[in-house]
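Is T5A placement plausible here? Inputs below.
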Amino acid sequence: MKLRGKFITFEGGEGVGKTTNLTFLRDYLIQHHIPVVVSREPGGTQLAEKIRSLLLTKHKESITEQAELLLMFAARSQHIRHVIEPALAEGSWVLCDRFTDATYAYQGAGRNLGASTIQWLEHFVQQGLTPDLTILLDAPAETGLKRAKQRGELDRIEDETLSFFGRVRRGYLLQAELEPARIKIIKADQPLVDVQNDIIGLIKHFFVNEH
Ligand code: T5A
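Reply from A.M.:
I modeled the complex. C-alpha cells:
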C-alpha cells in the first residue's frame, strides 16, 4: 500500500504571496523527488472553477453571505472528492492555495457569520479531512491589498473595505491561536527570500523523517 501524501495549505489575506510561495515549495519538493499536486480554492475541478467564477465575478444581483458560504463548501466538496483525496491516496503531496481556514476568516470573521455554522459544514463536507500543515502568511491588510491592486482590476471580494480585511486578518490569527500545532504563521511583509527560508525551515522541521 502506498504511503498517504501530505496535505499542506497556504493561507492569508489578499496578495500576501500565497501563489508565489506555493510555487516555490512545489519546485523544492519536485527537486527532492516528492510527487506533488498543486490546487486552489475555491476551484480545483471543472465544476468548482465555475463556482469560483460565480463567486469572484461582480454581478448586478448581490450574493447573500449565506449563499457565498454554501458555494464555498459546494466547491470544496467537489475538490476533495475529485482531486485532494485521490492525490493523497496515491501518495502525492497536495499543496492548496487556501482551504477551510479561509472560510473561517472571510465568511466567519469578515462577513460576521461566526464559527458554528462553518464548523458544522466542515464536519459534513470534509468528514475528518484537515491539512497536515497550514502556512499562514501574515501581513497588514494594506500591504497585501497594495500588491493585489498593482496586478489590475479587483474582483468581487478584493473590492471589500479595509475594515473587512482587518477582520479577515484577525480571523486568521484567531484560527492560528486555536490550532497552533497545525497553523504556522510566517511574516509576509519581510523580503521574499526570508519568507522562503522560513517556509523551508518549517517543512524540514515538520516532515524531515516522514518521507
Ligand atoms: N475566499 C476563498 C473566501 O472568501 N472563502 C473561502 O473559503 C476561500 C477558499 C480567492 C478569493 O476567495 C476568497 C478569498 C479571496 O478573496 P485568491 O485568488 O485565492 O482568491 O486570493 P488572492 O489573495 O486574491 O490571491 P492573490 O493571487 O491576489 O494573492 P497571493 O497569491 O497571496 O499573492 P501572490 O503570490 O500572487 O503575490 C502578489 C504579488 O506580491 C509579490 C508577488 O511577486 C506578486 O507580485 N510578493 C512580494 N513582494 C514583496 N515581498 C514579498 N515578500 C512578496 N511576496 C509576494
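Short version: The first strand starts at residue 7 and ends at 11.
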